[in-house]
Each structure stands twice: as C-alpha cells, then as structure tokens.
Specification:
four-stranded antiparallel beta sheet; alpha+beta; globular; DUF6678; 22% strand
Length: 148
C-alpha cells in the first residue's frame, strides 16, 4: 500500500461529533481513565495496514459494553472512532494447512506484533494466543483468557 493510499484510509479519530459525544458520556459515567490515544491507535493501524503478507484477527470491547466479532479487515472495519475502544484484542497466531494427514502448522506472529505494541507504548498483556490492549483503565478482563 502506498503512503498516499494509507492517508486516505480512516484514522483513529474518524467518526461524527454525535457519536463522540455519546462515547464521552459512557466514559464519564463509568469513570474510565484513558490508557491509549489517537496517536497510538494510528500507529497500530499504520503498522497493521503495512503488513504485506498477513493481517491478524482482532476484536474489541466498546465503552458501551458491545463486544465485536473477530475480524481481519484493517482498512474500514476497525472501531472508528477509537475513543470508544475499552480494550482491543489481537490474535498472535495463525494456522497453516500443511497436508491432508499432517497436523496444522502453528505460526507465532507475536514475535513481531508484541515488540511493536511495546514500541508504540500501549498498556497491554499477552495471554494464551492473544494480546489485549487497553484503551481505558481500570483494565477490563472481560472474556480474556485466564492467566496461565
């Protein structure tokens, strides 16, 4: 994807004022404190959109209580505006079919995703095969794999 194509894609703050006002109401009522910002979310979007060979699955929990299904489309499907994201899960593994009688090959993408999450400066945790990024504090462990 070219740099100019990346700039035409929605960024973390995409969304109408009405939506943002409603989200601010949820955030205030729940007394949530910000752990991420648009700069960090935009860095994540740019990084994932720039991956040529594989895009990880993700899902998110909204400050409204909504939990999305898993998705792999990083251009137009992410939860815009990101100010509504309470937590954001990224799958760190993929399975590759090798042959009829052979077990699936598990590929660990955490080796390149986790360092990038740390570089961006997210508050995150890895459990099982998922990295959870917190958009707000206190941390929500809703539907997150138990710690080992």
């Amino acid at each position: 994807m070219t740099a100019s194509a990346t700039h035409s894609l929605p960024q973390a703050d995409a969304g109408g004022d009405d939506v943002k006002r409603k989200l601010r109401g949820h955030i205030a009522r729940r007394n949530l404190a910000g752990a991420a910002n648009d700069c960090k979310w935009n860095a994540l979007l740019a990084f994932m959109r720039g991956q040529p060979d594989w895009a990880p699955s993700y899902r998110y929990g909204s400050v409204t209580g909504y939990v999305s299904r898993w998705d792999t489309e990083w251009d137009y499907h992410p939860p815009f505006p990101f100010m509504g994201v309470e937590w954001f899960d990224i799958s760190l593994y993929s399975e590759e079919h090798v042959g009829m009688l052979l077990p699936k090959k598990i590929i660990d993408h955490g080796v390149w995703i986790v360092p990038e999450l740390a570089r961006i400066g997210f508050d995150f945790e890895v459990r099982d095969r998922v990295a959870r990024i917190w958009g707000y504090l206190p941390r929500s462990y809703h539907d997150f794999s138990p710690a080992d």
